[in-house]
Amino acid sequence: MNGNHEPPLQLDADTMRRMGYAVIDRMVEWQTSIRDRPVWDGAGRDEMERVIAPHPPAIGAGAEGFDALLDHLLHDIVPRGARTDHPRFFAFVPGNATWPSVLGDLIATGTNVFQGTWLASAGVSQMEMRVIEWFRDWLGLPHATGGLLVSGGSAANLTALACARQLRYHGHSDAARIYTSSETHSSIARAARILGFRDDQLRVIDVDREERIDMSALERAVTHDRAAGLDPFLVVANGGTTSTGSVDPIRDLSTYCSAQNMWLHVDAAYGGFAVLTERGRALLDGIENADSVTLDPHKWLYQPFEVGCLLVRDAKLLRQAFHVMADYLRDTIIEESSDAPVNFSEHGIQLTRYARTIKIWLSLNYFGVDAFRDTIDYTIDLAAAAEMMVRENDALELVTPARLGIVCFRRRVPVGTDSDTLNEKLVRRLMESGTAMVSSTRVQGQYAIRMCVLTYRSSLADVRYVIDWIAGAEPARASSSAAQR
Fold first, then answer.
1. Is-contact 395 444, C-beta < 8 A?
2. Looking at the DSSP assignment, which residues form a beta bridge with residue 437?
3. What are the two backbone dihedrals, phi and then psi, of residue 248, each rounded to the nearest 5 degrees?
4. Strand, helix or coil for residue 90
5. What is the 3-state secondary structure (H, E, C) of 154-218?
6. Considering only CA atoms, which of 453, 455, 477, 434 is closest in space to residue 41?
7. Is a pLDDT exceeding 70 seen at residue 455?
8. DSSP characters for 96-157?
9. Mean pLDDT over residues 201-205, rounded?
10. Residue 361 · residue 104 · CB < 8 Å
11. List of E strands, 258-395
12. Pairing, β 202-205 against β 176-181
């Protein structure tokens, strides 16, 4: 080795600027030309295998070839799929990030702060503590509440179950029983499986006609399990189900769980931020009594993927559940007190964490809370308008009313026609047209077209387009994607 080594991965400032400006220009074009692009432009595995080279080059494209790399990436690869931020993307749960939050993610990755410990990230760790406090106050949870940002609702649910189990059993218990409704998100069952719970330790409770957990059925199941010598220890309430937006009776559940010495976890990944509105606050009544709550800022707080949040009623419980001190981390030790800094790595699963909080802090400070509150109200209004359009159209049948931005319906069919097959074809044909996208679910065992209105760019005309298309389309006819675009 000699002292004149030039790092091959280091770029000069001018090159970095040119590349950065090129990326920002492409991203602005991407954001501002959404309506010029198809909502869906999928591809098969064979096609994408041909598009993406099987091996990286030994000698790269360098600065001279960077624009060509961007062209290939943003023309041939990234667009192949669904545009979840498109104004007519009403499938699954849309993802529609604000521009300041996109820039916040750029800052987080560009500065590359290690946010596992306070020692390495005092500034952004305090920022995350502040953001957690904002969420706590919005939900009405007590001052002792703490939490952390994670990759999404699935990770938050896993962390919540792990925390509750560790505190109850200091390990595992074959007698433990978890109670969910049949409408609970699949991430709960997956979290239970990861944590080593057997399938029979997760009790699935029927729902009522509004897709809410049946309290009587829950009480019977808990009573039965206690009589059998088992230990009912946790109930999962839904703060907006993914299928229909239905909200469980959280206040009743909190009263029941408190009397039964059971942990109440509210999975509000979909609907939690609706508490910013009067309607959402009323629907989520009682969430302030939960032991833990899952939220997803990359849904109704309009942040880029990935960011979820777990709030726990007593912040100390997180550290009790996850604190493991290795010799190589002893320099990061923080003495516990009510106003002490936080090593977020001791509050969850990850040691290495990037600063997810920057994008939330930046976008909330740029727009202000009222802008997000008004947007949530606006999308709830659009879903309500969709419900009225369905009710007024003789070709359509309402399955569930608009709840937290979700409305379910289906096309009426002639006697003797397979309703499921016809409606499934309509969903597929709309997607293949590239003009809009909805998804499907089952409600009380019946196939339903599901429309989720979350995107802040969506308009009443976009909603009407989808309703009219489904009401008027001929599902038996073959469609040409290219002709529709």
1. no
2. 89
3. -65, 160
4. coil
5. HHHHHHHHHHHHHHHHCCCCCCEEEEEECCCCHHHHHHHHHCCCCHHHEEEECECCCCCECHHHH
6. 434
7. yes
8. ---HHHHHHHHHHHHHT---SSTTT-HHHHHHHHHHHHHHHHHHT--TT-EEEEESSHHHHH
9. 98
10. yes
11. 263-267, 292-295, 308-312
12. parallel
Does 91 have pLDDT greater than 70?
yes
- What CA–CA distance (Å, rounded) separates 360 from 363? 5
The DSSP secondary-structure symbol of 92 reads S
Q: How far apart are CA 135 and CA 297, in angstroms?
A: 10
Q: How far apart are CA 171 and CA 329, in angstroms?
A: 24
pLDDT digits (tens, 9 = 90+) for 111-123: 999 999 999 999 9
Look up residue 40 and give its DSSP letter.
B
Span 269-309, pLDDT tens digits = 999 999 999 999 999 999 999 999 999 999 999 999 999 99
Concatenating the DSSP letter of every residue in 63-85 gives: GGGHHHHHHHIIIIITTSSB-TT
Q: Does residue 306 have a cis peptide bond before it, meaning omega lies within 30 degrees of 0?
A: yes
Q: From 416, 466, 443, select the one nearest 243 (Cα to Cα).
A: 443
Q: Are the CB atoms for 260 and 222 separated by under 8 Å?
A: yes
Q: Phi, psi at residue 245, to the nearest 5°?
A: 75, 10
* Dist CA 434 CA 189 (whole Å): 34
For residues 369 and 363, the answer to whether their CB atoms sit within 8 Å is: no
Euclidean distance between CA atoms 416 and 426, whole angstroms = 18
What is the per-residue pLDDT for 339? 75
Give residue-wise pLDDT tens across range 129-186.
999 999 999 999 999 999 999 999 999 999 999 999 999 999 999 999 999 999 999 9
Q: What is the per-residue pLDDT across 318-369, written as a single tens digit (0 to 9) for each?
A: 999 999 989 999 999 887 776 789 999 999 999 999 999 999 999 999 999 9
Burial (Cβ within 10 Å: 0-12, 13-18, ≥19) of residue 327: exposed
Mean pLDDT, the chain, as a whole number?
A: 95
How far apart are alpha carbons 61 and 51 in whole angstroms?
Answer: 17
Q: What is the pLDDT of residue 479?
A: 42
Specify the pLDDT at position 481. Answer: 41
